[in-house]
Amino acid sequence: MKYLIVGLGNIGDEYVGTRHNIGFRTLDAFAKASNVAFEDKRYGFVAHCRVKNAELTLLKPSTYMNLSGTAVRYWLQKENISVEQLLVIVDDLSLPVGKIRMRGAGSAGGHNGLRNIESCLMTQQYARIKFGIGNDFPRGMQIDFVLGQFSEEENQLVDERVEYVGEMIKSFCLQGLDRTMNQYNKK
User: Fold this and answer.
1) What is the percent of the chain with per-residue pLDDT over 90, rounded to a whole number?
2) Beta strand 127-132 pairing with 86-92
3) 72 vs 64: CA distance, rounded Å
4) CA count, 13 A, side-chain hemisphere, 151
5) Which of 97, 129, 164, 180 has the most beta carbons within 10 angstroms of its beta carbon?
6) What integer pLDDT is reported at residue 187 of this predicted model?
7) Which of 8, 9, 20, 63 is catalytic?
């Protein structure tokens, strides 16, 4: 079975380590643990690996966050992967830092990357892992917050949670969405 695992973020050195790039950070750690490296390909940075009998295509879109759907649609088609085997990792302001929640469908919830994916795929029916980045910012400062860096204390927690999400990715590919949600959303 083939899977497309997408980590959302923005390309460029100025975005490395920002809250909004938690999807990239998660996939970088997963690729490193899988001993694979990303290559610059059409619409994104791509790596291929296996988890037992599952073939994974890891994608970090190079289209910037707000146009992520173009890359997702292209790689689903190129690799002949159904939307049921798509998993998107995204930052979420409504969850506390480090809180993880997996969903099988749902609205974009104000996230422009998810909104663009939904628009390009014409469905909200795809799996996503929402990675909490918190929302401790003054009114009107949301953009500065999501494009800002985690604190040292937050980074320690985020590193642990990135590893946890790696286990969720494996579970999604080997056990499916429902079992993974049942197992990991409770923790």
Assistant:
1) 80
2) parallel
3) 12
4) 6
5) 129
6) 61
7) 20
Tens digits of residue pLDDT in 92-128: 998 999 999 999 999 888 898 999 999 999 999 999 9
Judge if pTM exceeds 0.85: yes
Amino acid at 30: F
20 is catalytic: yes
Q: Domain segments of the chain: what residues?
A: 2-184
Tell me: the pLDDT tens digits for 46-66? Answer: 999 999 999 999 999 999 889
Q: Which residues contact 139 (CB under 8 A, 6 or more apart)?
A: none
For the chain, the three-class secondary structure string (H helix, E strand, C coil) is CEEEEEECCCCCHHHCCEHHHHHHHHHHHHHHHCCCCCEEECCEEEEEEEECCEEEEEEEECCCHHHHHHHHHHHHHHCCCCHHHEEEEEEECCCCCCCEEEECCCCCCCCHHHHHHHHHHCCCCCEEEEEECCCCCCCCCHHHHHCCECCHHHHHHHHHHHHHHHHHHHHHHHHCHHHHHHHHCCC
pLDDT tens-digit series, residues 146-156: 888 988 999 99
Nearest to 25 by CA among 76, 49, 72, 60: 60
Is residue 88 a contact partner of residue 117, using CB atoms and an 8 Å limit?
yes
